[in-house]
Amino acid sequence: MRFSRYMDLCLYDPEFGYYSRNAQPFGKAGDFYTSSDVHAVFGRLLARQFEEMWRALGSPEKLEIFELGPGRGLFAGDVLDWSGKKFPDFFRALRYVLVEGSARLRERIRTALNRHLDAGKAEVRESVGAPQPASPGHEVPIIVFANEFFDALPVEVLSEQGSLRIDTRDGHFVETWSAPSSAELEFLDRYSVHPEQNERVEASLISQQTMDRIADGIRRGFIIAIDYGYTQAEQLAGRHRGTLKAVRQHSISADVYQAPGEQDITADVNFTALAAAEQRGTLPQKLLTQSQFLMGIGEANQFADAFEECSLPPERAKVALQLKHLISPAGMGESFHVLVASKGIAPETVASLSGLSFGQTQVVR
């Protein structure tokens, strides 16, 4: 089978897949942290950015946010709670849709967001696909948010020997190679690099197809993708070649065949390929680090969203450390990148968003 099929089964098989059988992969007791596990300020800052995007769209009466791969709903809860408290006009217009393929995680979401679900402000869907294209007369603007979503989509793996296939022999997985497809070769030509001797690279065809479907499903709105990843220019410079890895109990391993279904499998995101959705009518902005993005949102009010509920100095000190982890180079600030794209909105309006206003950016190439 293709490597992408193997990765898909390991992660998403309804019975044995990692995300199907494991409802607690996040946080200290799980295998990895997300930004929302660090502090609620991540969701609060994004709520502020979502509200600003809503105003950039003309403050419509209705707005839908689609979160892809929302896990247990922690981020969504932070966004909804903070929006209801700080941005009542935006909150009235908002409908939040969580798209989660794992049945166990959907149950956790329903428990965590029970109040918002009962009030009709939130909805949980099973399909991990993109929102459907707007039907005639259905002009509700959309914001699609994907935090650590694309890194978990299956990839193809290529070497100078060809395209990787997985087989079994005597009860063990074995690797074989087949001639690469025209789609794989075109992907390497346009968005990546061809592997050199004793080297492997990933072709994230499924991620690109998913991004295309998302772009097709939006008439007016925004896409925000946050993940660790790279550009083609970085690969040409010799970096980010062969990023496939397994993650278990906060440890990284190159062995993706050990304990299938019991460890996460991930690959860094090719942002050059994601940005190519501009061919579908979207306008990608320059790539930001998470530090730049969050600093842009939070600097106007000196990150008051983080400290508002702190009444004692020790509480402020603890929150300051958590905030530092989100934005500092030593934490998540430089490891994660942010791609913002828009559709049907004036470019000058998009460029004025606070999240895009901080620091120097790099062009996605």
What is the number of E strands?
17
Quickly count the helices. 16
CATH topology: Rossmann fold
CATH architecture designation:
3-Layer(aba) Sandwich
Q: Which class in CATH terms?
A: Alpha Beta
Main β sheet profile: 8 strands, mixed
Shape: globular
Query: How many domains is the backbone divided into?
Result: 1
Structural class: alpha/beta
> Whole-number radius of gyration?
20 Å
**Between the first and last Cα atoms, what is the distance in angstroms?**
32 Å
Mean pLDDT: 89
Tell me what portion of residues adopts beta-strand conformation: 15-25%
Low-confidence stretches: 128-137
As a percent range, the share of helical residues equals 25-40%
Structure explained in plain terms:
There is one protein chain. This protein has 16 helices and 17 strands. It is of the alpha/beta class. It has one domain: Rossmann fold. The strands form four sheets. Strands 1, 2, 3, 4, 9, 15, 16 and 17 form an eight-stranded mixed sheet that branches. A four-stranded antiparallel sheet has the order 7-6-5-8. The protein has a three-stranded antiparallel sheet with strand order 12-11-13. A hairpin with a 2-residue loop joins strand 6 and strand 7 (172-178). Mean pLDDT is 89; it is low at 128-137.
